[in-house]
Amino acid sequence: xxxxxxxxxxxxxxxxxxxxxxxxxxxxxxxxxxxxxxxxxxxxxxxxxxxxxxxxxxxxxxxxxxxxxxxxxxxxxxxxxxxxxxxxxxxxxxxxxxxxxxxxxxxxxxxxxxxxxxxxxxxxxxxxxxxxxxxxxxxxxxxxxxxxxxxxxxxxxxxxxxxxxxxxxxxxxxxxxxxxxxxxxxxxxxxxxxxxxxxxxxxxxxxxxxxxxxxxxxxxxxxxxxxxxxxxxxxxxxxxxxxxxxxxxxxxxxxxxxxxxxxxxxxxxxxxxxxxxxxxxxxxxxxxxxxxxxxxxxxxxxxxxxxxxxxxxxxxxxxxxxxxxxxxxxxxxxxxxxxxxxxxxxxxxxxxxxxxxxxxxxxxxxxxxxxxxxxxxxxxxxxxxxxxxxxxxxxxxxxxxxxxxxxxxxxxxxxxxxxxxxxxxxxxxxxxxxxxxxxxxxxxxxxxxxxxxxxxxxxxxxxxxxxxxxxxxxxxxxxxxxxxxxxxxxxxxxxxxxxxxxxxxxxxxxxxxx
Length: 514
What we know:
With 514 residues, the protein is of the alpha/beta class. The chain is 31% helix and 27% strand.
């Protein structure tokens, strides 16, 4: 009897020890991930490609296959509800329905989750059957800092952070009253608690690959960083210290797979890869495909009309690195409509290209998905130069601030220090006069200082009667404001008037070296 009692006590002791240590010894689990989907639900052939990639119904089918093989988490690393017409026309509702069907375990908010404004985001989060994270965002209660999931007996803490550049990456009205704290400080503040409560800690990050690498070096104790924001293809995990960093490109064109073996609360082995998603790779998930078709039909019905014809492909690639014919076209259109001397827009506002042939309304909406309108601002020459310096200050990072221009030309040296890269600026064929005032067309996002364009924001705010009323700017520095019509709708009307276009790269932006 005593021996039986001793056995019972020993079993209870072992059970207690298993609970204390998390029961995580010798467990293999799988983390599946994708990021920067932007509503690209259907396969498409990237510019310069030879075959269609992506297709969320095929990604869903493959994710289910991989989940059946071992205990798994499916994580979404931000920028899902905004981007393509497929989701934009429902203001993100389509993307949330999709993520619900995929049974996502957690999602971090991306900067573009805020593009429809806080009330729309509040509705989308209420519709989600998964937590939406944003530990470093203060003032928006629907976002949770973290979630703890048990996967195959392993307690996995998923902590979410979004880029603290969000206030300049979306219109100021979309984040009014919100504070975006430094991610490193936020992660450090939560890490101690999460390490006590969980076996491993996964940071679900919408910071960008370079920022993830930096953070891993600054804040030890993160086991895995699943990243987004920079649209980086990380084919195999990067290791910084004891932290694994992964990211799965963009638009559902790849699914990330990270297998880890966990013993005593530590990752002792790992193997990771990206799986390209192609529509010829097996059968699509039927329920997801039905959802894709439902919202595609709605979008097609609204946007199938013809806007014009183009004799050449309108190139949406590399708008964050160099002059493109599509960037020239949009900048020319804005300058013409505003009656301005020049136009400066951010390459990050151009989200796709258009093949040669018929331009549909839906094509224009895909290229210009943001709720921005055309303005023209009085700027002195020194402020224009400052704006151009900012635009090329992070060209090596493919930052969205890279300028596309009209009515002006300039050269820049990418190897020079940021802030002193711009050379030989001309407007109307004449050298830029630093003291002269020029009329410069842009959009209200940049005019409010968006994407870090403080030269615009400072000029507008210095206006004696500046005001931001109902999201519309007013002030003596504003020469033109088409606040009643979104940029994409202005583009559709302009293209219909032109009928046929053939824009070219003209040497407006030249890269030089000393």
